Amino acid sequence: MTEKFETRMVHAGRAGTKTYGYVNPKLVRGSTVLYPNMATKLALGKRVLEPVELYGICGTETHFALEAAVAEIEGGSHCQVVGSGLAAITTPLLAYLSAGDHVLMPDSVYGPTRHFCATMLKRFGIETSYYDPMIDAAGITALMQPTTKVVFTESPGSHTFEVQDIPALASAAHAHGAKIFMDNTWGIHHFQPFKHGVDVSIQALTKYVGGHSDIILGAVTVNSEADWAWLRKGSLELGQYASPDDCWLALRGLRTLNIRLQAAERSGLQLASWFAARPEVARVLHPAFASCPGHEFFKRDFTGSCGLFGVAFQPHYSAAAIVAMIDSLQLFGIGASWGGYESLVLPTTGTISRSAGTGTFEGHVARFQVGLENIEDLIADLTLGLDVLNRYE
User: What is the pTM of this model?
Assistant: First the structure.
């Protein structure tokens, strides 16, 4: 029987219904693992690629349960949980790249990813070039160098939500012998990375998996034994580790992930539609809307959306007016994260670096995360906020 997503999220990472014991996986904290004898220690020490408790940093059954569940969501074979979403980006890059290699990054990429490339990767002798996220296969092929080892993707892009043509980029990268890495946090569940040619899928479990804005956690998933070997060994060499307490909370968050994603999609689309009808708005940057770059790829490759999108305001509104509007909102906190139960807003204009000439809009842009509040209350709050915006001018 092929089970649906909501069923799998209830049962993933658990021992099963026909076993003796508590419903939830155990929270296991520990550093030292004891072995009954040296023969056992030597034999188990060779099994670092398996979910075996060898030493605390190699993981506990709490880690292994979450890793199995995330691999289930992503459609991959193996998952490595790490301490943050940023660590889920930096770990596979460091594990796979070597001095002299070249990586291609979308111009719309998450700011800390860009900073990592400009600092640590540069110090290690790894070159980064930035490309227009809307580039096609021929365009990415033209940017390939003999040393290009990774084409990094983030779809949709941070803050401006460009949806990339992942299958085309994957085909071009593989023809060159390069790997495709993808930050798939926005599209969790709604985009199956390995069905579209991705080699390494990255998740900030801090967001929708955690769901309650109280953990920091990341995950890296692959779908081949060869990719698992370098990822797992690289993670251990870097000393990557995630708190078992946070892993346990993420497992708890998984159980309601489906209904929270449904609510986020429903409210996000309602609010984006409301913004699109407002005269103050020049453009809505929601992948499900035709006004968003790459909307055609969203329709082709995604099964749904989440509650995060951008709004570009009419160009005559000043930055100060946008700030006044944001400050007046009562239900939207000013915060950089998303995927939690609470609604958030964050100005985008001037906060993201670009080097390939992309992501420019006539007016100022703000990013909205739609939480679990009543949609009518959120609209009422924003209506008052837009009144402030208009009075400011």
Answer: 0.94
